[in-house]
Amino acid sequence: MLIGGLVATAVGVRPVNVEPVAAAAGLTGDCRAELAIGRNSGGNMRYRVDRFAAGIWSALVDDGGEGWGDSRGVTALAMGDVDGDGDDELAIGRNAGGNMRYQVMDESGGSWEQLHAGGHGWGDSRRVSALAMGDVDGDGDDELAIGRNAGGNMRYQVHDYEDGDWSLILDDGGFDWGDSRGVTALAMGDVDGDGDDELTLGRNPGGNDRYQVHDYVDAESWSLILDDGGFDWGDSRGVTALAMGDVDGDGDDELALGRNPGGNDRYQVHDYVDTDTWSIVLDDGGFDWGDSRGVTALALPDTTGDRDGDGLNDCWEVNGYDADGDGTVDVLLPGADPKRRDVYVEIDCLEQLTFGVEGPHSHCPRSDALMLAAQAFADAPVVNLDGTTGIQPHLDVGPLYGDGAIFTVAGGGGVIGTFGDLEGGKTIVETGNEIIDFDGAVGDPATDFDDLKAANFDERRLRLYRYTIFGHQTNFRKPANDCTSGWAPGGEDHFLVTLGGTGTDGFNCWGSDANGWSVGNDEQQAGTLLHELGHILRLGHGGTDSENYKPNYLSVMNYLFQACTVPTSPVQPGIPGECDYSVQALPPGGTSALDESALDECAGIDAGTLGFGPMDWDADGSFEGPTCPGSTASVSADINGDGDTTVLAGAEDWNDIEYSFRSATVGGGVGGGEGGSDPQEVARVRRRVAAPLRPELTLRGPRHPVPVAAANTITFRLRAANVGGGPAFDTTIVSSGVRLELGTIIATGSAASFVTLAFPTGACSEQVALPFRIVSSDLFGLRHVQRATLTVALDREC
């Protein structure tokens, strides 16, 4: 291997899976499922909820319905967490009669309270025929679907609970079904793997379809029907039962249908592959049951639960993944926790072993680079179900740093990430200085990415691991000498990191290794890994959009900061800087945007909250804007260098991440491929954007003569003032034998420190000229060096 020595610790530490946990919190939050029982009409109780404890079922949680009237009974029950408190609520449906037809009960502090009731105005013959709960809109809380029996008006409704208000109805329908058509069954489950549940409706006998699968896209798009069927069943055949669950272990739910008595099959299990492939039936049966036998009920366990919302099913995180459904686990997820968000990435890399145009070198990531990237995830401001904060990264480079070696990365909020040998990453021998592309275009001198992936990536990991190759170059911008740092194709879960080669100018594209070959330095490797992975997690160059070079978007997704150069706030620890996605939309409050046609220069990019100070956007040497003293007028300036004045939206990245493996968008709806930065292009834009914000520092010494000490030294207070257009970071003042670190000095600000200087013994004068070198960096990481001479009067006799 051509990788240098490791600096990470804990070699050989292998993370272990956590203990198995229940798939749901249950009604009382003790991770045990309660049993709800409904009864038909008659006196006394109509429903009860029992809990199994200490080996018996004697623990009664609740019962009710004694005052309903003799003809009232329970027709349907469902459980789900509608209010997001972590515990399930119980929905109860009633048969026809006056008063309410359904209610939602919540257990709180040992007592049961009614959250909601409805159906009072339905008409005496209308009843609830089915209930289901599931999260159709992806907000983390379950919605309640209610089915009605035959009759005019609506046959189903989907209710959403928000802040104590049940009046929000996401959808209703069935008005045109015909008076004798009603809903006979309901089920919710995620059949298409998008992370949100779909709603399946069953209908009673009659013409047309007998079942429908509805998908919720937004409040206006409940009309999207993924599937319907049963048109040819015969008028007397209807759906009697529905259930959803993952029967083949692929991570997506399948749909089980039950039918009433009659010839042919009595049940079917359907699998959704894509919008054109609902016709696959995994199983059917009951042909020989006899005409009077039908299915009355169906049930499938919930094995696709993903409580932490990281796109990985809870059962996979605990037990591993059975990719082919043969009952044997094929892929383990070391370190996974179903109560914490986990992100797994396999990293393969190219290595040149022979002497050629470029000598032996490796494009494999250095351990320090992976430590930087992993730490960013581990410190993420994302709250997990167990109260920890952070995202647990698991970066699999195989035996790159040693067989079986796994390194742990602790986040400040309690999570533990890993990188090292998770038994998947591979080192690939590079054939020459290899160019890789994603489309295999005819005439391009390139290796097809898909061929490399097929040869090196275990397809059983497709639903678990994102995949990347650290390689030489891609051809995103030009067929050869393309310094593009990487490429993430739209709607995929794989990407490239390419930090090799020389550009058209003959210079290395990126940082060099010890032998002078372009492979990227630690910050470039870490930042580009985060950048391209960010695209796969659906972030754009502007966070929620692809507007690049926004000064108010402090993220490695922004080309200005991709190489781990996110500026660090001098006053706010919540903005760690360097290698990070954006942790706050800037400026905070209101629209969190900068309007280039109406800029407040004194508000800068952060409205004063992060300590970055004023910005002289129009470079006129003065600060103007509503918050500036003596000024009310805003200024207009193109501050991201795109030649236009628009509104630049700020973005908070970490909680905008989309974990689903099947989302087809990047950056909040930005489709298509996303390429990484080109260093020459970025340098040009950075200089243009940075020009108005260049810091300029002046020095001021003592106003009165300074006494000379016996050792021929003088001590005085030195003040540095920033009279430039933007903040000066890492300000350092250097003179002979003296180095002062003054940190960040904002525009219009200053900093001071005492300095002691020596000059030649025996020298005698009334004043001395002291040379200083002033070094600082601007908001975008550009280094600035100034020279200044300070004349100091001396208090001594000559």
Care to describe what's here?
Helix content is 7%, strand content 31%. By secondary structure, it is mainly β. Strands 20, 21, 22, 23, 24, 25, 28, 30, 31 and 34 form a ten-stranded mixed β-sheet that branches. The chain has a five-stranded mixed β-sheet with strand order 36-42-41-38-39, with no helix packed on it. A four-stranded antiparallel β-sheet has the order 4-5-6-7, with no helix packed on it. Strand 41 (767-777) and strand 42 form a beta hairpin. The longest helix has 15 residues, at 522-536. The radius of gyration is 33 Å and the shape is elongated.
Number of strands: 42
Class of secondary structure makeup:
mainly beta
What characteristic shape results from the CA principal axes?
A: elongated
Summarize the amount of helix as a percent range.
under 10%
What brief labels describe this structure?
798 residues, mainly beta
